[in-house]
From TrEMBL:
Protein name: Recombinase family protein
Residues forming coiled coils: 334-429
InterPro entries: DNA_bind_recomb_sf, DNA_bind_recombinase_dom, Resolv_N, Resolvase-like_N_sf, SSR_resolvase
Species of provenance: Bacillus bruguierae
PROSITE patterns xrefs: RECOMBINASE_DNA_BIND, RECOMBINASES_3
Residues covered by the Recombinase domain: 156-270
Gene3D superfamilies: Putative Large Serine Recombinase, Chain B, Domain 2, Resolvase, N-terminal catalytic domain
Domain of life, source organism: Bacteria
Residue span, Resolvase/invertase-type recombinase catalytic domain: 3-147
One Pfam short name: Resolvase
Amino acid sequence: MALAAMYLRLSRNEEQLDIEDILTNHRNALIKLAKQHKLTYDIYQEISSGVNIQRPQLNLLLSKLDEYDYLLVMDIDRISRDNAYAEQIKSVLIAHDIKILTPQGAIDLNQESNEMLFSFQAMMANFEYKQIKKRLGRGRLAAAEQGRWTMSNKAPLGYEKDKNQRLVIVEDEAKIIRYIFQKTLERVSANEIAKELDLLGWRSRSGKVLTTSHISSIRRNVVYYGVVKACRRVNGRVVDEVFVENAHQPIISKQQWLEVQKILEENTTGNFFNKRKATRRLQNLIYCNCCGRKRYIQIDGNGTDFIKSCFYKISNNKCRDRGHKYLPVEDYVINKVKEKKEDLEKTIRKLKSLDITDEENKFLSQMDSLEKQLERYEKRQKNLTIMRADGEIRKSEFLVMSEENEEQIKQVKQQLELVDIQLKNLKNTDEEQRRLEKIIEMLDRIETYDSENCNAFFKTFIKKIWFSTNAITNHNTKKEVPEVMIEIEWL
């Protein structure tokens, strides 16, 4: 009695149906076919897309073709929907003299007409796959336009899907999302957040530890301020996109999300985040005014905190800005920060009297600057298109430069949205007063804070502290030392 290999493949699209029913129906049909031809058989079955060439069961079957005389499948598209891979399999089947049996009939690849029929059916299967994929993509976009979650079968952490495919908050998971965004606003790094979540025992839905990559992905996800976003790609490029705000209840506010994006964009190197416990109040904030590089703090031979001399190269010449005692710099910065209290109190008085002119002007000035930036980037985008049309730049160059410029446009638009929200929030004077009063309260108690909490507080409104001794490192102790330069760059 001849031996056959029976291959059963369930496609990803069918996985949403009753998997056992489908496999049972296919298996029964092929067993019946095997009995009609008086064949014994081995069964290989798996769930995989027809265009996937990494299929363990199919690869195992192909590696054991010497043992078989027939291949039993429901249809040619169950072998492969990829033209090139189908042709490779056909060559292997011909080399091993394997005949294909389907419920629709037999295919003997040694006959030229049957070989052509196999190739034609494989080509049609590939075409059908592309059409199905296109229809599914359009269906997902249409559903997304109605605010339904169609990106995947699983809802993102913090949500679950209701019967209408809309996202509903799961409070036990939502607290994790709020914690991640709040800690990011406090300038805590993804690595430190991951450690804290692990200590709290907060896990993913499957019970796994939340890694830095999970946290980085969560911080960028627009779904958490109520957005459903979907796109359709062709050859890796987006050809259609849907972006629906207020599609479901947000876990965080849009303002929080935008503030986090601003922090992430400003700190692409990660230097601005608290990667480890801060041992000094100005840790990771001091930068050299001569070369622009970060200045580090160490303990000298006498046990005194000391800002290290700078030795970074500038155009093959070392910077050599000399070191300085750390504490006087810290005291200077703390005093400057305390001076902010007067400005904050003045702002509160204006809010109470509904005089928000200065604050409005500040935000309007920021908006004007951002709008000019946006205008420049949009003009650059038009120029790139013209240069490409005139053949001045290659397609590859255009795609790279255009993508970079579009990312800049996206960032500026996000910043504009944030300033617009802040401007509107000025009308809500009670909330803004409470926020400013909390900052003043923290300023009054700043000396009581430990280094880590003080460092985190400073990073909410100080971008960089520019420092220089204005003197070159040398061993001449009698030489007159010029006055140091300290300048605070506020956020």
